[in-house]
Amino acid sequence: MQIIEGAGTWAPPAAGAVNDWVEQLRTPDLSVGTYCIPAGGIDDQSPHTEDEIYVVTAGRARIVTPGGTAEVGPGAVIFVPAGEEHRFDEVTEDLSLLVVFGPAYGSRAPGR
What we know:
Helices cover 0% and strands 48% of the residues.
């Protein structure tokens, strides 16, 4: 057993960064991290090679995918399959997301 300290907790991006990503746990089969976007910020991520679950722990935004859009806030749980374009926009309150990748983030990327 392991308690993952700080997972899902808001952290402002470093100076000059548009958002903040921290991986807090990594095993071959999954990884857990926190993704934060400040209010009014930009989500500049690209599709991932792994399935992904987001849990909104704080803030409000809209998630946009080819299949549609949805308003999200604390408690929302979002599944994004590997390879699907997605981004958060209209971030109206500092957004903090607990992120779970299966398998671990980047493990299916070419060249790994």
